[in-house]
Automatic annotation (TrEMBL):
It holds the Pfam family DUF1667. This is Uncharacterized protein. The lineage of its organism: unclassified sequences, metagenomes, ecological metagenomes.
Length: 45
């Protein structure tokens, strides 16, 4: 679980997108379960 907690992903992310392949050597991919929109950097204060 530590490997999952350390993963950082840049938006945008789409449902079903593979975030990490071969998670912990299991041959299983970590897959996004929701959409995350990109934040426009001009909107940040």
């Amino acid at each position: 679980m530590v490997e999952i907690a350390e993963i950082e992903v840049k938006a945008p992310v789409k449902i079903g997108q593979a975030i990490k392949d071969d998670l912990m050597g299991t041959g299983v991919s970590l897959v996004a379960t929701r959409n995350i929109k990109r934040v426009d950097s001009n909107l940040r204060s």
